[in-house]
Design brief:
It contains seven helices and four strands. Strands 1-2-4-3 form a four-stranded antiparallel beta sheet. With 198 residues, it is an alpha+beta fold. The protein starts with a helix and ends in a 21-residue tail after the last strand. The protein is 34% helix and 15% strand. It binds flavin mononucleotide (FMN). Residues 11-12, 14, 141-145 line the site of flavin mononucleotide.
Length: 198
């Protein structure tokens, strides 16, 4: 896909079909991940885990269910971005991965030599996969909430289910699959970021 079109098509998808993505699509997305820039060329510090098991994904939502059962927590996180009347808390147990048939977790080796570079690295990798998925006509969305909740509620941290190499921790993930509605180009209503020139 032509680059301009690709970035106009890129969007977060939160409704998926049940159909699994193909092995070829998965391979293309992993290949894109491997071509992402990583600080100091430390590719060995990043690890990917492909999860296609819905039971595991639901287990990984448990900490977020507990955290988001408190309205105040949701309001604090969401701020003005959502209609307060739409906040669903309490009994509902939403699938934070939106039922996406594939979720790829991006983990990083724990390190404190270059504080913060792990976040830059995993975001670089996720964004590359997000764009590759878009190019394939697949829907995808960054996944932060579930992993953050497990960091905040260690007794509900089920990241051991990801069977990571020693000293790695999952920081962010990308959910992906066939979107319920085909991706379409979007027009940006206004510039999103403030920009200054010196
Ligand atoms: C670092 C990061 C974390 C995100 N985490 C989540 C998440 O946990 N759940 C979710 O539904 N969307 C998540 N998103 C998607 C954003 O909400 C989305 O990109 C933003 O609202 C803009 O919408 P768009 O991607 O459709 O342009 C995340 C995005 C980024 C960059």
């Amino acid at each position: 896909m032509e680059f301009e079109k690709l970035i106009h098509m890129r969007q977060s998808t939160r409704k998926y079909q049940d159909t699994q993505i193909t092995e070829e699509q998965l391979a293309r997305i992993i290949d894109a991940a491997n071509r992402a820039p990583v600080g100091s060329n430390l590719y060995k510090d990043v690890h990917l885990t492909v999860v296609q098991n819905q039971d595991i994904l639901l287990k990984l939502c448990e900490a977020a269910w507990q955290r988001f059962s408190k309205r105040q927590n949701v309001e604090e996180i969401a701020g003005d971005t959502i209609d307060k009347n739409e906040i669903k808390t309490g009994a509902q147990k939403p699938n934070l991965f939106y039922g996406a048939p594939t979720v790829i977790f991006v983990s990083h080796r724990k390190q404190d030599l270059q504080p913060g570079i792990e976040w830059a690295n995993v975001t670089s990798v996720v964004n590359q996969m997000h764009l590759a998925a878009t190019d394939l006509g697949l829907g995808s969305v960054y996944m932060w909430g579930a992993l953050e909740s497990m960091r905040m509620i260690p007794e509900l941290d089920h990241t051991d289910l990801l069977q990571l190499p020693e000293d790695f921790e999952p920081l962010i993930a990308l959910a992906l699959g066939y979107p319920e509605e085909p991706l379409e180009e979007r027009t940006m209503k206004h510039p999103q970021f403030g920009v200054n020139r010196i």
